[in-house]
Known about the structure:
By secondary structure, this protein is mostly helical. It has helices spanning about 1-5, 30-40, 50-65, 75-85, 90-100, 105-120, 125-130, 140-150, 155-170; strands at about 10-15, 20.
Amino acid sequence: MKDELTKLGLHYTSVELGEADIMETISPEQQAQFKEALVRSGLELMDDKKSVLIQKIKNVIVELIHYTDEPLTVNFSVFLSAKLDYDYTYLANLFSEVQGITIEKFIITHKIERVKELLVYNELTLTEIAYLMHYSSVAHLSAQFKKVTGLTPSHFKQLKEKRRSMLEDL
């Protein structure tokens, strides 16, 4: 992304995952060229503020669930509100309106995806996974897992192990 900005003669103060702060006003032609370059790279330009905010909400959730092991010391709503500098009610309503699901459901979906990864690729017990993913108990994790996937965590792991052993037999 930095190279494309430089090619267009644009100066930036920062370029981070999914976001660039550009110092000057971009002409419509520069914006179109930048958009084309991003598409060629498999990315897209989001220039409306609501879409950008939705993406920021998603990024915070994904970062927290998939890449952070530290437990939150405050409620998620407080954390998200402080991180994005918006009222949580506004963020929650916007997210639901645009995505068609609540922030809570989005979080649960990602937590269960992370649990699946941990079940398949790590040698952690369900108790350790529940602790790592900040569930209050193994029962809570198991109930939520079954509600989302239709399977218990242990049945899910057995299916993956069967599939892996069948592939090894080929």
